[in-house]
Amino acid sequence: MFLIATLFVAGAGIRITTIADRLADRTGLGEAVFGGILLGASTSLSGIVTSLTAASDGLASLAVSNAVGGIAAQTTFLVIADLLYRRVNLEHAAADANNMLMAATLMLLISLPLAAAFSPEITLFAIHPVSVLLFIVYLFGAKAAISLKDKPMWQPEQTDETRADDPDEEAASKRPLPIMIASFVGLSLVLALCGYGIARSAAVISEEFGISQTIVGALMTAVATSLPELVTTLTAVRRGALQLAVGGIIGGNVFDVLFLSVSDVAYRDGSIYHAMTPSDELMLIGAVMITAILLMGLIMRERRGIGFEGLAILATYFGLVGIQLTLG
What we know:
The protein is an all-alpha fold.
């Protein structure tokens, strides 16, 4: 079940990217905004259902590690896309103020669950206040991204390697808008259903093989449910939709933090933030580090290769994996 659901996740992710690119042009939202909000949310549905299902079953660590492990894995996928885009550093070519804004929003969102874990366990109906605050911050970031698109206060310097978001009106107009929207929604539902299958099978894998929930969540379900981000990123880069590629990863990561809010509601044994293990907290810290490195890369915009940010992200991610395996 785990492998079949993972394959369906990958297949739906490939198809949804093409539709998202055309919808970004057709709606006028642009690749960075559409990728950061709508595509990021839709490709995260399999992951949110995985965490929701795990939390409702009382598997707090699996729910948390799936969400946070997805953030680390998806940012690492961006380095893989950078390796394939040989013309120039991907963060240089896809320079966009919205992507930097969403990266900063992501760092703020990740810090809130960490703060909750070290604060008193105050809940209302077994829901921690931070779960509500996460949604408020997310909505603020989404509104700010749309406002920045409409009224930008500054623009990144354009170079001969900067890839602008030029709408492809001809491709976008080939299919009726309602059909495109219906296809986008339908593929999103497929991703959500696959998330349920992944969560159920992952729980059995953890129990039968005696593997900790953190390892299963961070290294198995997180990677499996993050495959839409991998295939959408690689497909977007191949199509030349670079802002969509970077925005989709960052937006997916931002939406992934909301997994924790939904999981806290589904987890009935108290605050899910206080049920986190030290391994889960370490993954949160690692996610902050990886996002900070990516933001630095987006600001500095190196031209050659994958840049310092690509090497640093790879080192940080595999260092986290090694530590998690050591902790068992």
